[in-house]
Amino acid sequence: MKDQDFVNIIDVIPDAVICLKYATNDNFVGERFYSSPDAYLRYGTAKKLIRAADILREQGCRIKIWDAYRPAAAQFRLWEILPDSDYVANPNICFSCHTRGNAVDITLTDTNGNELEMPSAFDEFSDKANRDYSDATETARANAEALEKAMKESGFVEYYEEWWHYEDTVDYPPEQDLFSRI
What we know:
Blueprint: E1 6-8, H1 9-12, E2 17-18, E3 40-42, H2 43-58, E4 62-67, H3 72-81, H4 97-100, E5 103-109, H5 138-153, E6 156-159, E7 162-168
Helix pairs in contact: 2-5
């Protein structure tokens, strides 16, 4: 497999918990943005996520994926609903790393798949979501910092406004609609 190829995360990290928020109505809009419940990343990015999952597994945690590859149409719809570049990439200027398949929105669970306490809920559009962690409990801060450390050690960069968002340092071209090809 080549680094630019797409891979289903569950195929390479079988114990990952997959719960794509935008493939359901359980998101900040209450609207389904795409139909596939499968989380895809570029293979090069997935290899880095495997390393992070291994590090976190040693700490008694599993990873839970809220978003990975996102079709271009979903990115346009998100921008239409929330045209705020602090939280949504403007697809009229450049495509999101999610549409490139090299970004993941992620949290931690225990070994049974129960989410660990984090600084905020997913898609919280307030200061609670940023990496300052001043609004977080000690437990939430420790969990977020453990996630951040594992992701950075594995080759990801963080986004300050969203504790859950990580991007690969390698860029790939946008993919309009992977789901129509698989």
